[in-house]
Amino acid sequence: MRTSARAAVTTSCDYRPSSDRTVAEDVVPEYLQGLRNRVRDLGLQNVTVTLGEPHDPKLPTGSVDVAILVHMYHEVTQPYGLLYNLIPALKPNARVGIVDGFAPTSEHGTPPSLLRCELAAVGYRRVSFDRLKGSDTYLAIFAPPSVASRTRPEAIVACRAP
Fold this sequence. Notes:
The protein is an alpha/beta fold. It is built from four helices and seven strands.
């Protein structure tokens, strides 16, 4: 299994090493260097740290079973580009999980209606949406469209923040 996550996820979650491959991706080189150091210090042999771009995670085609974006979606400056360019990296039946806060993006959260709108604009289908117990955060899981059925960039209609 290959999991893609923006950098902080790999070592801030209750990460349990396994034989599965994990790719930690971010767009900020300084964050990645800190993550590389942490991965090295923890002895995580199955973690690859890679630099993406704001509009493109630059992951290999057909390499990702699950993409997990934890407390970072609200930081994405080009959500439609990122979501569009993530699709080729996702394997058939892959899922995208997003953990974020019930707050405006200016307060380090993503309103659920905005999240659903942005993913739907690219062609993703919501699978589930659950509030995380004891917090003001949620886990939203989406199924991606196929490469052929994703909404073309010129046809994407931008969503308005609530």
